[in-house]
Amino acid sequence: MSPNPAELRARAAVLDDADPLAAHVARFVPGDDLVAYLDGNSLGRPVASVPAALETFVHTEWAGRLIRGWDELWLTRPAELGDRIGAACLGAASGQTIVADSTSVLIFKVLRAAIAARPGRDELVMLSDEFPTDRFIIERIGDDHGLTVRWVDAPLDAGITPELAAEVVGPRTIAALFSGVAYRSAWWADMPAVTATVQAAGALMIWDCSHAVGSVPLEFDAWGVDYAVGCSYKYLNGGPGAPAWAYVAARHHDTLRNPIPGWLGAAAPFSMIEGYSPAPGVASLVSGTPPILGMVALGEMLTLIEVAGIVAIREKSIALTSYAIELVDALIPAATVSTPRDAARRGSHLTIDHPNSAIAVQRLWAQGVIPDFRHPSGVRIGLSPLSTSFAEVERGIRALADALS
Q1: pLDDT digit string (tens) for 38-65?
Q2: What's the pLDDT tens digit per position in 333-345?
C-alpha cells in the first residue's frame, strides 16, 4: 500500500521544525513558479541579499569609483574571496586559494602546472566516467604533450577509491585528477587516503571539488592536497557563469608555472615592462582581468556559509539526502538508488535510475518541479542544505513518483 500523502507531509513538517538551519531557507530568492527545486547541485538559488548587493556595487563601486576601483577595491578581491572560501569550506590557510577564470580554464592551468613540475614522467590518471569537461581537457593535453592517459573504471554508484588509484599510479604518473564528490553518483571519495596513494607514487593529486565545495567539509591542508579547483555556482550560489576558484598548496608556490601568463598575474602588472615575472604565490595563477561583477553574489553566499558553518551544513545535507532516499524507497520501489546509502560516502545529491527518467524530467519541469536528467536513465536530485526544506523534498519526490509512473 502506498504511503499516505498526509503522513508524508506531516513527517516533513516535523523535520523542518527540528532543523536548526531552517531559517536560512527564507534567505534565498524564491522562484515564481517553483513547486520544488531539486537542482541546487547544478545551479544554486540566488541569496536574497544579492539584488541589493548588485545595486550597491553598480552605484557605489562601479559608477562611484570607476577606474579607481581597481587600485582601491578590486585587485585584491580574488585573493580575499579565495581566502574566505579556503577558511569556510576548504580547510585551507590564507594565501593558497584564488578566484579566477572558469573551472575548465583552471583545470587546464593546474594540469599544465603539474606537467611542468614532474619532468620525465608521461602519464595522467582519471576516471573513465569523470565529468565531460575534465575528460576532454585531459585528453587534449595528453595529445598535445605526447602523454598517456590511464583511465580508471569505477562502479556506476561509486567513484574513486584508494584501491582503484593504487592499480594505475606508478613511477610514470605525473598527476591524478579525480572528483571529490562524483557528479553523477555523489560518491564522496576518501580524499585523504586517495591523496596519500597518489603521492606515494611520487605523483601530484588534483581534486575537482565542484560538487564538494560548500556541501561537505574539506581539509586540504591537513590532507596534503597538492592542487584543487571548483566552480562557485552550485553550493556557493555565485550565479550562472560565476568565476571558479583554485587551491595551490603553499609548498608548490615557488615552482608554480601558469601556462597562460597574463598581466594581472604578473609581479608588477601596472609597470607594463617587457618580460613576464610572476606574482608571488597563488596570485600568479591569475591571467586576465578578474570578473569582479561575477564575484558579488558569491560573496553574499559565503557570508551565509560562514554564519551557518560547514559542519552544520553537512549535518543537514545528510538529513536531507537520507530523507530523500527514504521517500524514493517508499514511493518509487521500481527505481534504483545509484548513490551511496552510506552517508559517510555520499555528497549532497543523489541519482535514481528508472527507465522513464528522461520523459519524467521533461514533465516535471513543466510542473515547476526541477531535478535534472543524466544519461542514460538517471534523475539527479540536488539538495542544497541552506536553501532546501524537507517539505520541498517531499513535494518533489512525490511529484517524481507520479511522473515516473
Answers
A1: 999 999 999 999 999 999 999 999 999 9
A2: 999 999 999 999 9
Class of domain 78-305: alpha beta
CATH superfamily of 5-48+309-404: Aspartate Aminotransferase, domain 1 (3.90.1150.10)
d(CA 84, CA 298) in angstroms, rounded, equals 10
β-strand pairing of 36-37 with 245-248? unpaired
Contacts with 307 (C-beta within 8 Å, 6 or more apart), sequence order: none
Tell me which DSSP letter residue 335 carries. S
Q: Identify the bridge partners of residue 369 per DSSP, sorted by sequence position.
A: 36
Residue 152 near residue 312 (C-beta atoms within 8 A): no
Catalytic residues: 131, 208, 233-234, 380
How many angstroms separate the CA atoms of 181 and 13, rounded? 29
pTM of the model: 0.97
Q: What is the DSSP string of 249-316?
A: -GGGGGG---SS--GGGBSSGGG--SS--BPSGGGGG--S---SGGGHHHHHHHHHHHHH-HHHHHHH
Each domain of the chain, given as residue ranges in start order, spans 5-48+309-404, 78-305
Contact between 291 and 262 under an 8 Å Cβ cutoff? The reply is no
What's the rounded Cα separation, in Å, for the pair 332 and 2? 10
Q: 284-294 burial string, b = 16+ CB within 10 Å, else e?
A: bbbbeebebbb
